[in-house]
Amino acid sequence: MRMLARILAVLMVPLLMAPVGPEDRANPAQKEQIEASAKKVKQLQKERIAALKEAADQLSALHKNGRTSFDEVLETRLLALTAELEAAEKPADRITLYKNIVDVLKEYEQWANARVEAARGIAATALKIKARRLDAEIHLEQASTRDAKEGK
Asked: If you average pLDDT over every residue of the chain, what do you get?
């Protein structure tokens, strides 16, 4: 019986000394590669946001001169806000961005409804924009609820 206990003890010691989590098993080169990849993604996200913001500014200036449509300006602003949302790390930043998206979509919805009333647009377009706004408001409420739960 004592021999069995010794054998079990000898077998258990290496198991108890083995790494517990998968991050403990990852070699340093792999960790560096993961960190480098994350850094590259952040840099690409920043470049994307800058490009979309610049495009939105240029389209806004073109719209003032009557050289592009208002929906083009709003779509580009939404793309920029969505890119910022994807890059946001803090819940408070996400909530602010969702609010901005809702505001842009409300403006877009008013524009679409005015086009319908002037017989220059179709109601289906206005309804699709309304659905997008409602989706953004749902995400805003969910983010606010998550933030409140995490804040406790």
From this structure: 87
CA neighbor of 49 nearest in space, from 79, 90, 89: 79
Q: Are residues 102 and 123 in the same domain?
A: yes
Whether residues 104 and 151 fall in one domain:
yes
pLDDT per residue over 27-48, tens digit each? 788 999 999 999 999 999 999 9
Phi/psi of residue 131, each to 5°? -65, -40
Residue 117 is part of which domain span?
Answer: 90-152
Prediction pTM value:
0.74
* Residue 14 to residues 7, 56, 86, 122, Cα–Cα distance (Å): 12, 60, 44, 71
142 and 103 inside one domain: yes
